[in-house]
Amino acid sequence: MATKHEQILNYILALDVGEKISVRGIAKNLEVSEGTAYRAIKEAENQGIVSTIERVGTIRIEKKQKENFERLTYAEVVNIIDGQVLGGRNGLHKTLNRFVIGAMKLEAMMRYVEPGNLLIVGNRYQVHKLALEAGAAVLITGGFDTNEHVISLADELGLPVITTTYDTFTVATMINRAIYDQLIKKEIVVVNDILIPLQDTYFMTVDNTVEKWHEMNQKTGHSRYPVISEDMKVQGMVAAKDVLGASVQTPIEKVMTKSPITVSERTSVASVAHTMVWEGIELLPVMDDAKKLLGVISRQDVLKALQMVQRQPHVGETIEDTVTSRFREAPPGSGFMFECDITPQMTNALGTVANGVIMSLVTETGQRLLRDYKKGDMVVENVTLYFIRPVQIESKIELNGKILEVGRKHGKVDVELYYEGAIVGKAMMMVQLLDR
């Protein structure tokens, strides 16, 4: 039987896209406490099936597919720019195709306005009206309002009219940044991208015996299986070492490893790789938020995914990409191994190099040195930064590294950072080495 939490999520999924949701309404309709309803709505928001907007409320939105991840809904735009919805609330769930900045004459501007667009413009009432008639939503900058006729038209067409106190340039920058962030998220490989789904997963139940394990081992050739209860919740893991020497009539729950390490479908593959190597695990159960089995993920699939990611070009540039793109080998005879130019994006509010950038420089140095000794993938286990001095904007940092230890599964590197010949940072990095 489904839990109250699951019942609420199923109820939300069954609602029409665009329908408004409230904690009190769900608590009353499903006869649950408001606390239970609130937690379920927050989970639905994490899953991307509802969106909460200040002064509007929570609405059901269409869940985004991975390939459509870089597109924003009008509801998300409202949250990004801290906007207020003047009209057309029933269209907030819709996805915008692109945004158009209305900084030209009316005739020229309307050539670019199409259905599904978001027109960013000031207090030009006639433009607001024509944009809605063309099938586009309107975002009014500078804290301006619009007239009652435009608001009525927006409600009638289901196209949002939004206002914000920010200026046009700031709004465009904020939306671009949000789309850019979505692109970066899209590129991060998570468990859901590579898991073996439930219909293809071999598992055992708590009422099975060791005899069942031998039957499945003969049939599948696998030696590790998740063990689940009647309601599909993961109770344990059983492997060959667990059944070794056990009677075939022994209940499987007597020999299984209870409370096994599990992962969620939203966990990053890099995090899973770290767990699998550190714990020596070959197979992990994947669970949903109700602790029910969704499938399994194997160490082999994780390593393949990591290799694939390293070969893929990035669309969105992260801070790490910014650092590594300017990271290069130092000229021969300089006395240093690597160097990197510090750009304004790499600094903090005081104009000195951000600590996160220092960490990226350390890890890049260590990884390059280790790759010369050991081919394969690696996952950073920990970095200890035990000395640091401020480095100014638009300077050049030079780096030296020394390998302290390289084993079959681990590596340790000492890294020193210099500015104008003086040492400005020292760190030690430890990594897990993954054989390909």
Descriptive report:
It comes from Marinococcus halophilus. InterPro entries: CBS_dom, CBS_dom_sf, Diverse_CBS-Domain, DRTGG, HotDog_dom_sf, Ser_kin/Pase_Hpr-like_N_sf, Thioestr_dom, WH-like_DNA-bd_sf. Keywords: CBS domain. With 436 residues, the chain is α+β, with helices and mostly antiparallel strands. It folds into 4 domains: 1-63, Orthogonal Bundle (Arc Repressor Mutant, subunit A); 65-181, 3-Layer(aba) Sandwich (Udp-n-acetylmuramoylalanyl-d-glutamate--2,6- Diaminopimelate Ligase, Chain: A, domain 1); 192-308, CBS-domain (Roll), CATH 3.10.580; 319-434, Hotdog Thioesterase (Thiol Ester Dehydrase, Chain A, Roll). The protein is 36% helix and 25% strand. It is built from 16 helices and 22 strands. It has a 6-stranded antiparallel sheet. Strands 4-8-7-6-5 form a 5-stranded mixed sheet, sandwiched between helices. Strand 15 (283-287) and strand 16 (293-298) form a beta hairpin. Helix 2 (23-30) packs across helix 3, helix 6 runs parallel beside helix 7 (148-157) and helix 15 crosses helix 16 (355-373). The radius of gyration is 27 Å and the shape is flat.
Give a topology summary.
Layout: H1 4-14, E1 20-21, H2 23-30, H3 34-46, E2 50-53, E3 57-60, H4 74-80, E4 84-87, E5 98-101, H5 106-110, E6 117-121, H6 125-133, E7 137-140, H7 148-157, E8 161-163, H8 168-187, H9 191-194, E9 196-197, E10 204-205, H10 210-220, E11 225-228, E12 234-238, H11 240-243, H12 252-255, E13 257-258, E14 263-264, H13 269-279, E15 283-287, E16 293-298, H14 299-311, H15 319-325, E17 327-329, E18 338-341, H16 355-373, E19 377-388, E20 396-406, E21 410-419, E22 422-434
Parallel strand pairs: 5-6, 6-7, 7-8, 10-11, 14-15
Antiparallel strand pairs: 1-3, 2-3, 4-8, 9-16, 11-12, 12-13, 15-16, 17-18, 18-20, 19-22, 20-21, 21-22
InterPro entries: CBS_dom (IPR000644), CBS_dom_sf (IPR046342), Diverse_CBS-Domain (IPR051257), DRTGG (IPR010766), HotDog_dom_sf (IPR029069), Ser_kin/Pase_Hpr-like_N_sf (IPR028979), Thioestr_dom (IPR006683), WH-like_DNA-bd_sf (IPR036388)
Pfam families: 4HBT, CBS, DRTGG
Domain CBS: 195-254, 256-318
